[in-house]
Design goal:
about 350 residues; alpha+beta; Rieske Iron-sulfur Protein; Naphthalene 1,2-dioxygenase Alpha Subunit, Chain A, domain 1; 7-stranded antiparallel beta sheet; 2Fe-2S; 2 iron, 2 sulfur cluster binding; Rieske_2Fe-2S_sf
């Protein structure tokens, strides 16, 4: 792992206020980073990503320390990155290799190299204190069933929300909204309201709910012999500030309205990365333990996922447009308990980092 020090260019970048920095976040999907330069802003820092000719991924501060020209508009020559403004050239370590107008190179003329680790089909980056970077703290891909035998994984893409990351985490840890926002209006009126539970398990807050639901066309596409009503179990687990694991398990429903045989489980890892104080990247995947060799159901899966994603995006961006610098919840209800507990955990992380920086 590369050691790094803060450079003049990285100090000029404006960090995202009030969100944990000392954690691993997904910077990009593996397929997004190649021999073309990729400019991306993460936690308020301008970055440029590319792969060396060996295939090794690189993440550098994205503004030239000379005049802050965006290096995403630069040119790769082998593994060297040349700024298009004045031709100043940098190596993958961030070292300045060449200034066309002079032989001497000022010590301040270098880029920050950020630790970047490739796991599954995601590139994880550390933009916090360099001495605290520990790649073993990257979430376990096996826990997410990504690439695991007996499960089929799908990469659903990269998305950008014009809303702060905390709203996305609140949304994922609030399962009560699923029945209102993602189901047809009024569909749940004749079914007992689902109870939402939250618990701390293995130092992670998890929110769960379960209820009988009418089997719609989509459910019958996945499970053709499921009947007219199925029993659904939902859970959301706060893995880290940059990852929430959502799980949907579908069961046959017994005559007494209890869950019967499991028909299948879908896991949706949501990798969330702050772009700015009020915008967020979502890197979304899914994996399933049923019909793993049947790709004919995947268009229906993707269509359903995109509908839900855009419903969430529209709701969160509407909330952001009416939110001041700090989120203020005027009223909370019982179903908010899990989301509020996770927000407290994040607030404690922020406070600990602030105290360490002040010391």
């Amino acid at each position: 792992m590369n050691n790094r020090t803060e450079t003049p260019s990285s100090r000029l970048e404006k960090p995202v206020a009030m969100f944990p920095k000392n954690h691993w976040y997904v910077a990009a999907r593996s397929k997004e980073v190649g021999r073309e330069l990729l400019a991306r802003k993460i936690l308020g820092k301008d970055l440029v990503l590319y792969r060396c000719e060996s295939g090794e991924p690189v993440a550098l501060s994205g503004l030239c320390p000379h005049r802050q020209f965006p290096l995403g508009k630069g040119t790769l020559f082998g593994d060297e990155l040349e700024c298009r403004y004045h031709g100043i050239t940098f190596g993958p370590s961030g070292e300045c290799l060449r200034i066309p107008t002079q032989e001497s190179i000022p010590a301040s003329c270098r880029l920050t190299n950020y630790p970047l680790v490739e796991k599954w089909e995601w590139l994880w980056i550390w933009v916090g204190e360099p001495e605290l970077a520990d790649s073993t703290a990257i979430p376990d891909m096996n826990d997410l069933r990504l690439g695991e035998e007996g499960w089929r994984a799908m990469d659903n893409g990269t998305f950008r929300f014009e809303s702060r990351i905390q709203l996305s985490i609140d949304n994922l840890m609030d399962l009560s909204h699923v029945y209102a926002l993602h189901f047809p209006a009024g569909l749940m009126r004749d079914i007992p309201p689902p109870k939402v539970h939250s618990e701390l398990h293995n130092n992670r807050w998890t929110v769960t709910t379960e209820t009988p639901v009418p089997a719609d066309e989509f459910t019958k596409t996945l499970f053709p012999d499921c009947g007219d009503v199925v029993y659904s179990k939902f859970s959301s687990e706060f893995v880290s500030p940059g990852l929430v694991k959502a799980v949907i398990s579908t069961h046959r429903m017994n005559a007494d309205f209890t869950p019967g045989e499991e028909l299948g489980t879908l896991i949706f890892p949501h990798a969330l990365t702050p772009e700015t104080a009020t915008s967020t990247f979502l890197f979304m995947a899914e994996t399933r333990n049923f019909s793993i060799h049947d790709t004919s159901i995947e268009p229906a899966l993707l269509e359903s996922n995109m509908r839900i994603l855009h419903e969430d995006m529209e709701a969160l961006e509407l909330i952001e447009s009416h939110t001041s610098a700090e989120i203020e919840y005027i009223t909370s209800v019982r179903a908010d308990a899990g989301a509020l507990r996770v927000k407290k955990v994040i607030d404690e992380m922020i406070a600990a980092e602030s105290a360490a920086n002040a010391g």
